[in-house]
Amino acid sequence: MSSNRDIDTLIDLMARLPGLGPRSARRAVLHLIRKRGLLLSPLADSIARVAATARECVNCGNVGTADVCDICTDETRANGEICVVEDVADLWAMERAGVFKGRYHVLGGTLSAMDAIGPEELRIPRLLDRIGEETVGEVILALNATIDGMTTAHYIADQLGDGIRLTSLAQGVPIGGELDYLDDGTISAALKARRVL
Amino acid sequence: MSSNRDIDTLIDLMARLPGLGPRSARRAVLHLIRKRGLLLSPLADSIARVAATARECVNCGNVGTADVCDICTDETRANGEICVVEDVADLWAMERAGVFKGRYHVLGGTLSAMDAIGPEELRIPRLLDRIGEETVGEVILALNATIDGMTTAHYIADQLGDGIRLTSLAQGVPIGGELDYLDDGTISAALKARRVL
Ligand SMILES: [Zn+2]
Ligand SMILES: [Zn+2]
């Protein structure tokens, strides 16, 4: 396409990123080549560093550069609260809001009969183990307000039983809305107005 | 943001690509980390290779991995025709159409009083030199159908004088349209129906 194999390979790889199609991948690669010193070399270094070190936390599913992530090893965040999110992007959205001081549990999706995603695929067994290991008093469900998100919330409620306080983000999360699209203020309000399930 | 400096650096760099904002950069980086083996490492290698080798052709402005690009060194393309485009993305669009067998000249933009872009910034002097050096019989203007594109076409027509056949893509390029958005068939039709200026 560019009559150069190295450049074509880079375009093909970039086009596989979410949000970039072939055309925007070509534009991005041309931009990178034009800004070679400012952007291309730093990006090469940065990607190589992340490729060498990034991994999922074995405890919570967050991404970081150690087997156990910074939040799970931070003793000041062992306040007895675990916030359950679908995706690492949702964890980041919660952190940007800056109001939650506990730890997280990243499911990696929601239960889905359609896509044959069951509890084992979602780190739900690991969540149940953590309740005891980390003396958790409250589990806050911060799942997307979708059908699959609500199904997952009900399933987790059944598994936890009555011994534990289970809450969910409430006020402010629009029906059908996805957490990562919300502004920080809306997330703050939803956390403060959380209700017992 | 991700509570990890390496990952945050990568998100910041990705967010500076055209077409990606902060949110899509975060999504892209999470996707890269999840597909570490399949995507992140190959991308790191590919970017490093392009960063080390990519450069602009000193003759025509195309990008490649040598001082003079593959098209400029291909003797079968020395057919006396030079196609003038604004951008490398437009050159790629012409190549995808597969109907033009000559060489290119990439201006790197259009004349613009507003942005103070004059002929020197656009490789127009180099174009005039090439006419003699490469015994060019026809210059085909494949500029975007915008005001600045047409101003640039008129300026080039004045510079070339009467000794050379000067044509432009005609039928099929919509008013205000940009070449890189067109399908291959439209580009083919526009090239075949080109008219003498
Ligand atoms: Zn963790
Ligand atoms: Zn060239």
* H/E series of chain A: HHHEEHEHEHEHEHE
pLDDT averaged over residues of chain A: 85
State the CATH architecture of the largest domain in chain A: 3-Layer(aba) Sandwich
| Quaternary structure state of the chains depicted | homodimer
SS content category of chain A: alpha/beta
Strand residue percentage of chain A? 5-15%
Question: What's the total count of β strands of chain A?
Answer: 7
Main sheet overview of chain A = 5 strands, mixed
Helical run tally of chain A: 8
Ligands bound, unique: zinc ion
Instruction: Please give the radius of gyration of chain A in angstroms.
Output: 20 Å
The geometry of chain A reads as elongated
Number of domains of chain A: 2
Question: Tell me, what is the CATH class of the largest domain in chain A?
Answer: Alpha Beta
Classify the helix fraction of chain A into a percent range. 40-55%
Enumerate the strands of the largest sheet of chain A in spatial order, edge to edge or round the barrel. 4-3-5-6-7
Spans of chain A with pLDDT under 50 lasting ≥5 residues?
A: none
Organism (chains A, B): Arenibacterium halophilum
Protein name (chains A, B): Recombination protein RecR
Zinc finger (C4-type) (chains A, B): 57-72
Family (chains A, B): Belongs to the RecR family.
Structure description:
The structure is a homodimer of 197-residue chains. Chain A is an alpha/beta fold. Chain A folds into two domains: 5-53, RecR Domain 1 (Helicase, Ruva Protein, domain 3, Orthogonal Bundle), CATH 1.10.8; 63-196, Dna Topoisomerase Vi A Subunit, Chain: A, domain 2 (3-Layer(aba) Sandwich). Chain A has eight helices and seven strands, in the order αααββαβαβαβαβαβ. Chain A has helices at residues 5-14, 22-34, 36-53, 70-73, 88-97, 124-133, 147-160, 184-192; strands at residues 55-56, 63-64, 81-85, 103-106, 138-141, 165-168, 195-196. Chain A has a five-stranded mixed sheet. Chain A is elongated. The N and C termini of chain A lie far apart (56 Å). Bound molecules: zinc ion (2 copies). Residues 57, 59-60, 62, 68-69, 71-72 of chain A line the site of one zinc ion (ZN).
